[in-house]
Amino acid sequence: MNENRYPVTASLFMLKEIKHRQEQVNRGYQLLKRKAEALRIRGRQVASELASTQAILGHTLREAYITLAAVKFTNGESNALVLENIGQAQIRVQRVAENISGVSTVSLLAVEEDGIGDSFRYAGLGAGGHRTGEAKKAFREAVRILVKFASLRNSCILLDEAIRTTLRKVNGIEKVIMPKLRNTENYILTEMDEREREEFHRLKMVKAKKVKTRTRLLLRQSSSACGAGEAKEESGDESPAPLPIRRHSIECLTGILTCTSTLSMTTESGDFKPVCYPHNWDDDDLLF
Description:
Blueprint: H1 12-75, H2 79-84, E1 91-100, E2 103-112, H3 129-235, H4 247-258, E3 263-265, E4 272-274
Antiparallel strand pairs: 1-2, 3-4
Helix pairs in contact: 1-3, 3-4
């Protein structure tokens, strides 16, 4: 059965390592959540600016084309004049790098070159030169707004992709990595507790076995001593009597041997404990 955890060995070292990984994952999770929130705020700002700029751009382009129609009506067709006098660009686009919560974006800025001469400043002076100037200003303003619209559109696309990637990472950490780490920690703790209970049970069994062996040895020695004393009494030998043996100690030793099961198991804790112990033993006799 495949469990939702990492394949690790149950040990104190791995438990410490898993806890350290959990701390790092929690720190990264919080940072990613803050990043996603900051990107969302910036994305809303860019989206609102983009909507307002798009509305302004439509109005500006409409006014610019109206002024161009007025120039054509006043001065006639001027496309040939424009194509003949094309030189250096008077408006250039500058790329400005911007970092938004770790996401690199590029903003476009329209820069007007003042040192370049205008070949159309005297065009149409005889017949409506002010119309040409108004058309020029209208189209320059349209170019600036168009550059700003392109910059906001690019930033909006980059921020949208960054928000999706960040949210994907956040969901992966929250739904996959963190549950696996928690399940791994619970598995290690469960295995270590089980090993501790098994070791405790083994020590109890060994201790009970040693107690039983020592009890049999003492009972055997007492039985041999009693048999030797009776034989000497029958032979009439007046040798010093053996050391008296306490009656309750012998009864307790006999009770231990006659017990069918020296251990009883509690259903709740699962521990084993001896049933009978001698009443006159010291604590040193019960140790290993």
